[in-house]
């Protein structure tokens, strides 16, 4: 367990956060959520791009712009790494060696052995190391957690992150080499595999297909992964940039019922539009690590609901009824309210870990397990055969 953070002043002032990287991950996800989280203060941002530096100064006027990650070590109490994937491991290691707790954007590393080395380093130093697996706080995922008892024994879990991007954008994710850890398998697949492991536990066998469908890119843009869990559940995961008509976001088949949900969680769209969770959206539930302690609202209770049929204080991350999923079996299906998505709970969990010694919001060991599955999937796709996971560690 990492030691709680005690500010050098000995008071309860905000935790100073140094953010390495102000690309899409840093600017749309991390910086807004950090700025909106009670107990955190964005104090410095690393970027050498003049345009991005200007956006930092405009959107976060209290944050200093610095040119290199090492400039953060003496300027913050917590380091958040939102740089290109190939830099995650070396930057996280340097921050830990400097005595700083670390948040790393997914994927933690491109190889499970590298991730294990980081976990050992953090453990030896008594420092928090956690991974920004924000999709654990998607509304559809939180809803599925709540519905699991009604489904019975889950036999098949189908999950998709599919997009329509027929024209490549370029950049390291699409055109980089293996050292860049690009492609949909490690990008979107990091979320899908993490969710499958969180729901249904360890995996024994992995089968995968990964293809390059568009001209001018080097990394996979269309992939499928099949997992056999020790529990007996089978997970089928799709990730694609070339899906003209995406399939259902979730299709979960249980022994008593099924849950089907279409459409992506709205939080990313809202963050990209410049919105942030408000003060009323923080502090819900007893455990900042999760969002499945929120009881579903009674549909007959209209006094506490807004026009979308959701409790007014849960405005962030809510979905209108027409986007809700359905639960049941053939001939007996009903719509089910989507739980409000809650990305803010990740950084709430970071504060609780550093201030109170609570467990990190995403244990780094769980990220290692997901990377081991992704490595096995990459091998399976290259060999065209099922890969037993224990051969690659867990």
From TrEMBL:
Residues 150-389 form the Gfo/Idh/MocA-like oxidoreductase C-terminal domain. Belongs to the Gfo/Idh/MocA family. GO terms for molecular function: nucleotide binding; oxidoreductase activity. Keywords: Oxidoreductase. The keyword Oxidoreductase applies. The lineage of its organism: Bacteria, Bacillati, Actinomycetota, Actinomycetes, Streptosporangiales. Residues 270-336 are annotated as: Disordered. This is Oxidoreductase. It comes from Microbispora triticiradicis. It holds the Pfam family GFO_IDH_MocA.
């Amino acid at each position: 367990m990492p030691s709680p953070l005690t500010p050098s002043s000995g008071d309860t002032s905000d935790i100073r956060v140094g953010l390495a990287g102000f690309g899409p991950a840093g600017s749309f996800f991390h910086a807004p959520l950090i700025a909106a989280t009670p107990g955190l203060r964005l104090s410095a941002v690393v970027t050498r791009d003049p345009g991005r530096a200007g956006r930092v100064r405009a959107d976060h006027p209290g944050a200093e712009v610095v040119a290199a990650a090492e400039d953060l070590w003496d300027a913050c109490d917590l380091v958040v790494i939102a740089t290109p994937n190939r830099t995650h491991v070396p930057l996280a290691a340097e921050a830990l060696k400097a005595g700083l707790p670390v948040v790393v954007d997914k994927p933690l590393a491109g190889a499970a052995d590298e991730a294990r080395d980081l976990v050992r380093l953090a453990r030896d130093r008594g420092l928090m190391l956690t991974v920004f697996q924000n999709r654990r706080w998607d509304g559809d995922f939180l809803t599925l957690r709540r519905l699991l008892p009604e489904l019975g024994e889950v036999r098949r879990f189908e999950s998709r992150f599919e997009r329509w991007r027929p024209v490549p954008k370029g950049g390291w994710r699409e055109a980089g080499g293996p050292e860049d850890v690009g492609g949909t398998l490690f990008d979107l697949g990091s979320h899908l595999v993490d969710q499958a492991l969180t729901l249904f536990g360890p995996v024994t066998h992995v089968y995968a297909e990964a293809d390059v469908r568009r001209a001018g890119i080097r990394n996979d843009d269309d992939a499928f992964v099949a997992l056999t869990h020790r529990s007996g559940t089978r997970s089928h995961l799709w990730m694609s940039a070339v899906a003209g008509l995406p399939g259902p976001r979730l299709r979960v088949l249980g022994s008593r019922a099924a849950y089907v949900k279409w459409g992506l969680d709205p939080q990313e769209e809202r963050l990209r539009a410049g919105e942030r969770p408000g003060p009323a959206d923080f502090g819900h539930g007893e455990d900042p690590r999760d969002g499945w302690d929120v009881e579903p609202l009674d549909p007959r209770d209209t006094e506490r609901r807004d026009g979308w049929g959701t409790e007014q204080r849960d405005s962030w991350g809510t979905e209108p009824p027409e986007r809700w999923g359905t639960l049941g079996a053939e001939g007996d299906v009903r719509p089910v309210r989507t739980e409000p998505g809650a990305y803010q709970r990740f950084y709430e969990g970071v504060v609780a870990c550093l201030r109170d010694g609570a467990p990190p919001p995403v244990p780094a060991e769980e990220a290692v397990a997901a990377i081991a599955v992704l490595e096995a999937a990459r091998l399976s796709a290259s060999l065209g055969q099922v890969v037993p996971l224990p051969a690659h560690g867990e």
